[in-house]
């Protein structure tokens, strides 16, 4: 019998975190889990049939071994010998073929359930508000979409089927043993724990050592990631810490060596004990069987004893696996619970029943009516914001960093919802307008430009997939980026790289402006579109923006004086409130926040 477990022995134990976060298994949770299985009940039924028949078939060759020995070999009956060999071979092949069918069906079911859950999760996440994405770790979100749902596949193809298969195999083996000889069957029941208990004891030891080794490995990886990066290595050199860091790494690597040696030796001693017990078990059955056969039970044959030894060997795997049912079950339930936690997160910003759909020629008028907003209950961001932007006009919003400028414009397309008051778009409370209709009429050029990994054409068409070549060119010309595109060998099909890293900040921003123009929105919002750019790039973008604000309704969060001068009204925001409003000539000598900004920031342009 091969030693079980191998490198997977630690799998049978829960971590401290898993013990603390053990999910509460309720009828509602189980019902919800099986709701994903119910559409595939026909395939599941076939899987159960395949499992049952395959498990029985896999046991029968061990049972036929007794007849093969007694009738074929000892009885010197060649036809019986051939018959039982062929029957055993046929059952083995049949079991294997059924196993292939069961694996295919199981994989098919798991993949389709995973497909259903991924689609459901992606659609749900697409509807979540900005609060969700700013409050949750991106890695955790991706993990739910990938690892957790992939784990569901392994639960279906592994945990559930393993439990069923092992139960059937164990029951058939036990019944067959007691049919042969109840005394030897009881001896076998006593011997089985001799296999399983050392496995769990050694497994627990290796699990503890492996956990310590993993923690040590994480520490080593942290040292490597920090100290061998460009910035980390520069810091080490500037502070003369080379020797200290080398010593720190040496100590961590030494701990890893010692832990690895202890883990390997713990496993080695285990296999010594297990191999000894593996020999003792069959020997004990042969001893007791021999005594019975010679002195008490003349009907007991050599073949029967051989069958019982073979069945004992077949019992170890299922018993050892079933001992881990609780661990596998808890982990399975925990995985489903984590996924359902995301499914159950409420959609904070959603369409109301029978929402308003804006007409295609909507003028894009905006009105803020006593608007208040907080990201958190105890931290107010905006207080009593009131202003009206008429169709065709331009408003500039200025103020110190962190004063709430971007928050104001984010309330218009409902990236967030107001905490008090209301935002109106063309006379409708934005909460009454369908999100699709509202956002189709609003174009936003953000401070941090994001381009998808693809071509310039791909990124432009994201705004309007049916745009013609002429429309693409027109939008790029208005955004002052067409000349750059024509100079590229691939033109519009030039690859921009991940997040547009192959382009400069100014080039990315102008492509972003062209993308918004292709959308042809009623309202244009520029959220500090020229910040953090060099003067040449800023000038090119400004040349693109200036004519646009004269053509359509627009809001500018600006730090450039020429842009502010072109606005019909300037709103000065400080600490979440509009503290001043008017035109440049009225505000520049008013002695307030605007004059302070002008003298410290805008005067640098003149």
How many strand elements? 10
The percent of residues in helical segments reads 55-70%
Strand order across the biggest sheet? Answer: 6-7-8-3-9-10
Strand content: 5-15%
Structural class: alpha/beta
Average pLDDT over all residues: 80
Radius of gyration (CA) equals 36 Å
Tell me the major beta sheet: 6 strands, mixed
Q: Would you identify the CATH architecture of the domain at 13-180 and 317-348?
A: Up-down Bundle
The separation of the N and C termini measures 88 Å
What does this structure look like?
It is built from 21 helices and ten strands. It is an alpha/beta fold and 606 residues long. Among the domains are: 200 residues, ABC transporter transmembrane region fold; 72 residues, P-loop containing nucleotide triphosphate hydrolases (Rossmann fold, 3-Layer(aba) Sandwich). The strands form two sheets. Strands 6-7-8-3-9-10 form a six-stranded mixed beta sheet. It has a four-stranded antiparallel beta sheet with strand order 2-1-4-5, with no helix packed on it. α4 runs antiparallel to α6, α9 runs antiparallel to α10 and α17 runs parallel beside α18. The longest helix has 55 residues.
Short description:
The chain has 606 residues and is an alpha/beta fold.
Structure characteristics:
single chain; alpha/beta; Rossmann fold; 6-stranded mixed beta sheet; 10 strands; disordered N terminus
